[in-house]
Amino acid sequence: MTSFASVNRDRPIQKGKAALLVIDVQNGTCGPEESTSRPEFREALTKRLLPNVSHLLRAFRMARLEVIFTVIENLTADGRDRSLDYKLSNMGFPRGSCEAQVISALSPQDDELILPKSSSSVFNSTTLDYLLRNMGIEDVFVVGCLTDQCIDHAVRDGADRGFYMTCVHDACAAETEARHEAALACFQGYCRMLNTEEVLRLVPGSRAS
Q: What is the rounded average pLDDT for all residues in the chain?
């Protein structure tokens, strides 16, 4: 019987085997008009999530590590492809709309993947699993929103599919800080929990490493 005694989540970042997954930081969820009415979310977005994701993007790009974005975006004009939950919740943005675009402060660069998704789980409604395996990715670093919804799904589903998942907890946000903290406590068993500075120290060539 194979022993897994030496296997753990405390792994170095290896070039070609790690990716930064930026979830749903888009105009329709994080734009000024959408977030102003949610003061706790707006504060977490501007003071924590955006600056930390920016630091991580810069480091991963400098190290030539994969960066992948997801956005909530229908594949069909009328949204009939959405999950039942998204239909019942009236969640989804038209294909090609401004709401479905990544916010300008975190704009994807050329050749970075942008995956439209129509369910909370990126693994259920996109080809992310297939793409990660094709690219040889083993470690997935998750950032974005919402911590208690799409981040939660990504971490749990990625772990079940055999990826080493890391949640960069200070680069995530939920509608309230209470929901953010509760979610982290619930799914922490499925991933490694690191803050932005701890991740930067792992990125090859980063000033913090």
A: 93
What is the maximum alpha-carbon separation in the chain?
56
Q: Which of 115, 178, 119 is nearest to 153 (CA)?
A: 119
Sheet bearing 139-145, strands edge to edge:
113-117, 66-72, 18-23, 139-145, 164-173, 192-194
Of 153, 138, 182, 188, whose CA–CA distance to 168 is shortest? 188
Mean pLDDT of 100-113: 95
The model's pLDDT over 109-147, given as tens digits with 9 standing for 90+, comes to 999 999 999 999 999 999 999 999 999 999 999 999 999
Contacts of 171 (CB under 8 A, 6+ apart): 48, 49, 52, 53, 56, 143, 144, 196
Nearest to 48 by CA among 179, 161, 139, 145: 145
Domain 18-68+120-202 CATH (choose: 3.60.20.10, 3.40.50.850, 3.40.1080.10, 3.30.1490.20): 3.40.50.850
- Residue 65: closest CA among 114, 128, 112: 112
Rounded to two decimals, what is the model's pTM? 0.93
CA-to-CA distance for 139 and 119, rounded, in angstroms?
23
Q: Reply yes or no on whether the pLDDT at 5 is more than 90.
A: no
Cβ atoms of residues 117 and 70 within 8 Å: yes
Question: How do strand 139-145 and strand 164-173 relate by DSSP bridges?
Answer: parallel
